[in-house]
Amino acid sequence: MTPSARLQAAIELVEAIATAAREGGAAADTLIRDYFKQRRYAGSGDRRAVRDLVYRAIRRSGERPPSGRAALLGLAEQDEDLLALFDGSPHGPAPIAAGESGAGAAVVPAWLLPRLDPLVNTEEVPSLLDRAPLDLRVNRLKGDREAAAALLPEARPTPLSPLGLRLPEGSQVENKDAWHSGLVEVQDEGSQLVALACGVAPGQDVIDLCAGAGGKTLALAAEMGNRGRIIASDTDRGRLSRLAPRLARAGVTNVEQSLLNPRAELDALADWRGKADAVLVDAPCSGSGTWRRNPETRWRLDPQRLSRLVELQAYLLDVAVELVRPGGTITYAVCSLLVEEGREQALGFEARCSSFVSEAAAIPGGRSCGPGRLLTPGHDGTDGFFVARWRAPC
């Protein structure tokens, strides 16, 4: 592909990604993969170059751009070499028309900027789009960090999680023996800390209420030494279906899966009312703490969707109240930096359930944030997470 053809491919992809964001379609990585499946002539260098252009344009455009062309033109306005590729050559983009301008640049959509938690100050905002590291969690069921490091000499311990290893940018892990044997699992350091914040112990009965594909379920099982029972539940059949092979590879044997119907979770979990030692509510959220991994998710959010998410989070916390035993714990976590989903959600829970006692999340890193702690890319080098924990009255 010529440089101009690469630019035109990036324009087409950003257009498709923006459309998918508006209409609730596939994620950017999926669209890029499918695009090149249909264009076998593109070599590995072409794919890398186009992907880099696509994500540079996405990261630059805080607001969803009016078109893929506007997004790439905005990027080119700061890059003379890129600007010259709007040359009308075969398979390249048309020349720039008189008065045509590119999409504006921003890290955070304007309507969301005042909704960031006050701890995320102006200086910290650019870090929300830094490139995320590749972190691994060492599976205690299979070995310790020293054993994993011996198999992965290029890895370095993460600064906060006692279970974490960090690989250099561009590393591949799924071809490593440490991964195939189940000794390590890909998991951001922030997610590792959320699992540790639950404070689970061997022999307990634990519910992971929003388990998804099970990353934190696996971490909880390892902390419990495969003793006790974990109910991994979710309303998303597709995500939950990915858990079984991960359990097998990790050697986890104390997890039961439960597919729930939305707004009828307590029907499926009726036998667990008032019995769980610990409930983790890793609630659906804006994902604003993971923009550095998935920057196009900024384009999927609007005030109405955010309002629905905040209402769902409160509902799931109330479900957890019905499931936890007297003296048990509820841990609430969201991969969000928005005040409505973090400290305000936690304060709302305390107003509704004043008999529950707030407990400090015993994790390194983060900053005190209302009843919980806030982990951020700029302060902690992790994905952004709010986490809080409460103990039920006896």
Query: What is the CATH C-level name of the largest domain?
Result: Alpha Beta
| Strand content bin | 15-25%
Question: What is the count of structural domains?
Answer: 3
Mean pLDDT level = 96
Determine the CATH superfamily of the largest domain: Vaccinia Virus protein VP39
Count of helix runs: 15
Query: What is the correct CATH architecture of the largest domain?
Result: 3-Layer(aba) Sandwich
CATH-defined topology of the largest domain: Rossmann fold
What is the element string, with H for helices and E for strands?
Answer: HHHHHEHEEHEHEHEHHEHEHEHEEEHE
The major beta sheet can be summarized as: 9 strands, mixed
Number of strands: 13
Q: What Rg, in angstroms, do the CA atoms define?
A: 22 Å
